[in-house]
Amino acid sequence: MSEKDPESQKLLAKDLEEDESATATQKPWFYLPSNAEREDEKSEALDGEKDEISSMQTFFNICNANLGTGILAMPFVIRLAGLWGVVIIIFIGFLGNYTGKILIDCLYEIDPTDGKRKRVRETYPQIGEAFHPTYGTYMVHIANCFDQFSHCALFLIMIGMVMKHAFPSISLSESDWTLIIGLLILPTIFIRKMTQLAWLGTLTAWTAVVISIVVLIYSLTKWQNWTTTTPPFNIHTVPIAIGVVMVSYSSAAYFPKMETAMMHPEEYNSIMNFSYSAVTFWKFFCGVIVYMTFTETTDQIVALNVPHGVFRGALCVAVVVLALFFFTVPAFTIFDIIENHLKIPWLAFNYTNQRRVIVSGYLLRFFLMLFTLILAVCVPHFSLLMAFVGCSTGMILVLIFPCMFHLKIRWADLKNFDVAAELFVIGFAVIGGTLGIIYSSLALYTVYNET
C-alpha cells in the first residue's frame, strides 16, 4: 500500500487545521466556556481602562444588595417579634455595617516600610485563604453555595405562595404552582455569562422597593385603622424574626468587589454608614407602618396584605416577576462556584468536547435545579425556611466569617476593644443562629405535619 506524497500530507494537515479553527470559532449555542477561556475574557477586559465606580454608585450598589425580596417580609417580622422586631432590624443592620467594614479591612495589610495600608487581596475567598491557606477558600465558597441554593428555593416558594393567593379560583395548591413555575424556569441552566444577567440585581432590588412603597402608601391611607398594640416577647418567634432579618442583610459577599472597583476607596466606610442607615430606616419604617395597618393578619409577603381585587392582582404579578428575575442570580452563582472554584476533579470538564459539555456540564446544572425545585415543593413555609437560611448561612457569611477572618489576619493591629467587639458578634451569631435554627426547624416540622 503506497504512502501519500509529502505535498498531499501538507494539504491534508492544512484542511484539518482549518476545520479545527472553524469548530473553535463557531461554538454551539449550548457551549460552556472553559476556565482558561474565562481567564482570557477577563484579561481582555483588563487590557482596556479599568471600570471604576463613583461613591454615589457604590452607595446605590450597597442599597441594592440589601433591598432584595427580604424587605417584603419586614412587616411580618414586626408581627413575630413586636417592638423587638424594630430592635432586631436596627441591631442586625448595625452589625452588618460593622462586619462589612472589617471584612474590607482584611483586604489590606500594613506596609512595614511606610506604615500605610496596602491592598493585597480583592475577594472574599481570598480573605478566606489568608485565614487558612488550605480550607479557607472552600469555607467561603461552600457556605456561599448553600446560601445561594437556599435563596433559589425561597424564590420558588414565594412564587407558589403568591400565585395561589393571586388566583384562588384555580384549584392548585402552593406546591403545585411552585412545581409548574419551577419547570418553566429550568432553562436558566443555559445561562453562560454573568454579563447576561448583571442588570437583574438592580432591577429586582428596586422592584421590591416599589412594591413596598405601594403597600406603604395604601397603609398610610388607612391611618384611621392603625393600632399601636404589638405582640409581647415570645422566645419561640423572636429567633425566627432574627433569621428573616438576617436574610435581608445577606450581602457581605459582594462588598470586596464593590470596594475594589471604587474610584475613592477611602470613602468606603462613610458610604457604608450612610447606606446602611438609609436601608435600615426604610426596613423598620415600612415594617411598622404596614403592621399597624394589618396587625395580626399581616402576611409573610407584604403584597398579600392588600385586599383581593385588581390592585392586589397587579402587586402579586409584580412579586412573581421580581422572584423570577432574581432567581437567575443565585442560580448562576451556584453554577460558577461549583464549576470554576471548588476544583472538584470530576468536574474538571473538557469544554472543547461538545458531548461532554452536554452530558457533564448541563446535566449537573439540571440536577442542581431539580433538587432546588424538590426542596421548594417539599418545604411548605416561606418565612420559616427564610429564617432557617438566615440563622445558618446568613449568620456565617455576614457575621461569623468576617469577625473570625479579621481576628486572625489583623490580630497584631487590633486593640482590646476590637477583639472584645468581634468576639461579641461571633457569640451573638452563634447563640442567635442556634436558637433560630432550632425554633424554625420545630415550626417547619409542625407546619409540615399539619399539611
Description:
- This protein is mostly helical.
- The chain has one domain.
- Helices cover 69% and strands 1% of the residues.
- It is built from 16 helices and two strands.
- It has helices at 6-25, 35-47, 55-66, 74-81, 83-105, 124-131, 136-166, 174-184, 200-221, 238-248, 255-260, 268-294, 310-340, 354-378, 382-409, 416-450; strands at 108-110, 117-119.
- It has a two-stranded antiparallel sheet.
- It is globular.
- The model is unreliable at 18-38, 44-49 and 348-358 (pLDDT under 50).
Tag the structure with descriptive keywords:
451 residues; mainly alpha; two-stranded antiparallel ribbon; 16 helices
Secondary structure elements and their pairing?
Blueprint: H1 6-25, H2 35-47, H3 55-66, H4 74-81, H5 83-105, E1 108-110, E2 117-119, H6 124-131, H7 136-166, H8 174-184, H9 200-221, H10 238-248, H11 255-260, H12 268-294, H13 310-340, H14 354-378, H15 382-409, H16 416-450
Antiparallel strand pairs: 1-2
Helix pairs in contact: 3-9, 3-12, 4-5, 4-10, 4-12, 5-10, 5-12, 5-15, 6-7, 6-15, 7-8, 7-13, 7-14, 7-15, 8-14, 9-12, 9-13, 10-15, 10-16, 15-16
Keywords: Cytoplasmic vesicle, Membrane, Neurotransmitter transport, Transmembrane, Transmembrane helix, Transport
GO molecular function, one term: L-amino acid transmembrane transporter activity
Biased composition (Basic and acidic residues): 1-15
